[in-house]
């Protein structure tokens, strides 16, 4: 092992978590990608993997709350790595019952000695032991309710204000708390290969405990095991996908034999879902602006044994220049978005997103939809979806789109469970993370007029 590798993984889970947290902060690296890379590269085993995941996500998820607790105990300037070490250690003390406080402190002191020197170790020891003696301050001290909610749930204040204005205090409070709960692990059954019961049996044979979701019939929730390491995954029986992400293909409801365009397709979760729904009959053109991401779609469709998907690098904002007019029976625009519905899966989004990013996305989404209409057949079906909870990118994008396109009508969302359809309005559905314990997601369906 080289010196560099030893730095990230020498069997010390807390040290590895600290390295990931620092990289996320310093280089705006994505926590989920870095965590997966670390786990796969060093073949970290199940017990350590679970703790590493919990420490990394937990510390990131609660960053503002931890800083609020730490602030009275920190005097003067401090290196970034020491600050993250304190956050990481305080996270264990405050949120993890199964880690004894003294173990969290001792580990922190050892890391501080190794990465720094005795002086830093003594500061770390002093801060953590003072907190253990005195306890942390209550958030009740924060008088402004929005600010208090922002600190308690560790979200930026501007975002909390926006959410409260759009959805009200009660829904926002539920959502922000839910964003700090680890996501359920869900997979989609490849229904062209096996039934749900058969896949449950295959997983059980491998010692993986799973159960069918009560919402989406093709969705299984895994209670143990790592899905991507199972034989069922390698043999193409399952795809890892959040339950909300299974809505767009269902809402579009593509039929066997249709010609379908998936305009923003990579890495192909919804393309392959649509191919499964079409029973692998017909054709799907899967396009994305980033050519290098198209390989991921090809890999997944090969793994799943789906032969109807073709990929092409296309900027959806210019799709009508490259694709035949009115040639697709159905189009899915699973648009680039702010991702505010997936903050518990990617907690770094909370701290990196800027308010000005949101309006820019609204404009891009409209350009994509404009092009989608041009290549959609008369009478064809269009679904627009995002993994965000933001009216500007969801309901307001739809309103602006409909205002510019009298030939498009909102239409009934199809093929979704009753409990979700009950929440839909005018062919639009906003799912919040707290609704079915899945990602925040938006989906809207439209039909193109048969007339000119
Ligand atoms: C939400 S992700 C799509 C996820 C995908 N549908 C799935 O289920 O796996 C949005 C995708 O849009 C792509 N994208 C961004 N701008 C685009 C554009 N102008 N034209 C086409 N694709 C674009 C991104 O590269 C990204 O892969």
UniProtKB/TrEMBL annotation:
Keywords: Cytoplasm, Methyltransferase, RNA-binding, rRNA processing, S-adenosyl-L-methionine, Transferase. It is found in: Cytoplasm. The keyword Cytoplasm applies. Pfam families: Methyltr_RsmB-F, NusB, RsmF-B_ferredox. Its main location: cytoplasm. It is an enzyme of class 2 (transferase). It catalyses: cytidine(967) in 16S rRNA + S-adenosyl-L-methionine = 5-methylcytidine(967) in 16S rRNA + S-adenosyl-L-homocysteine + H(+). The active site is at residue 387. S-adenosyl-L-methionine binds at residues 264-270, 288, 315, 334. Its EC number is 2.1.1.176. NCBIfam families: nop2p, PRK14902.1, rsmB. Specifically methylates the cytosine at position 967 (m5C967) of 16S rRNA. Belongs to the class I-like SAM-binding methyltransferase superfamily. RsmB/NOP family. This is 16S rRNA (cytosine(967)-C(5))-methyltransferase. The gene is rsmB.
């Amino acid at each position: 092992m080289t010196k560099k590798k030893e730095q990230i993984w020498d069997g010390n889970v807390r040290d590895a978590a600290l390295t990931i947290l620092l990289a996320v902060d310093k280089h705006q690296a994505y926590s989920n990608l870095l965590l997966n890379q670390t786990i796969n590269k060093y073949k970290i085993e199940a017990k350590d993997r679970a703790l590493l995941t919990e420490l990394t996500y937990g510390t990131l998820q609660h960053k503002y709350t931890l800083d609020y607790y730490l602030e009275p105990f920190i005097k003067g300037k401090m290196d970034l790595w020491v600050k993250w070490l304190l956050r990481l250690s305080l996270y264990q003390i405050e949120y993890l019952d199964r880690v004894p406080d003294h173990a969290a402190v001792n580990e922190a002191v050892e890391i501080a000695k190794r990465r720094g020197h005795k002086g830093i170790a003594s500061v770390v020891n002093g801060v953590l032991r003072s907190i253990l003696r005195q306890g942390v301050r209550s958030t009740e001290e924060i008088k402004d309710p929005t600010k208090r909610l922002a600190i308690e749930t560790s979200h930026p204040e501007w975002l909390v204000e926006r959410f409260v204005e759009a959805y009200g205090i009660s829904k926002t409070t539920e959502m922000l708390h839910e964003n700090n709960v680890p996501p359920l692990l869900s997979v989609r059954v490849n229904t062209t290969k096996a039934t749900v019961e058969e896949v449950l049996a295959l997983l059980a044979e491998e010692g993986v405990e799973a159960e069918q979701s009560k919402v989406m019939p093709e969705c299984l929730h895994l209670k143990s095991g790592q899905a991507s390491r199972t034989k069922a995954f390698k043999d193409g029986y399952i795809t890892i996908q959040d339950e909300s992400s299974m809505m767009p293909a269902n809402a579009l409801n593509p039929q066997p034999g249709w010609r379908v365009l998936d305009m923003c397709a990579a890495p192909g979760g919804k393309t392959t879902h649509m191919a499964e729904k079409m029973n692998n009959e017909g054709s799907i053109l899967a396009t994305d602006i980033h050519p290098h991401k198209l390989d991921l779609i090809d890999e997944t469709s090969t793994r799943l044994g789906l032969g109807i998907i073709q990929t092409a690098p296309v900027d959806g904002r210019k799709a009508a220049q490259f694709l035949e007019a009115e040639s697709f029976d159905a189009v899915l625009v699973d648009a680039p978005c702010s991702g505010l519905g997936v903050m518990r899966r990617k907690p770094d989004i909370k701290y990196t997103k800027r308010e000005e990013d949101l309006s820019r996305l609204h404009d891009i989404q409209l350009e994509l939809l404009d092009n989608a209409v041009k290549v959609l057949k008369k009478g064809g079906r269009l679904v627009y979806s995002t993994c965000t909870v933001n009216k500007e990118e969801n309901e307001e994008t739809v309103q602006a789109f409909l205002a510019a396109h009298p030939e498009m009508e909102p239409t009934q969302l199809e093929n979704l469970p009753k409990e979700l359809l009950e929440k839909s309005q005018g062919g639009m559905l906003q799912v919040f993370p707290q609704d079915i314990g899945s990602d925040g997601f938006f989906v809207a369906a439209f039909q193109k007029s048969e007339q000119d």
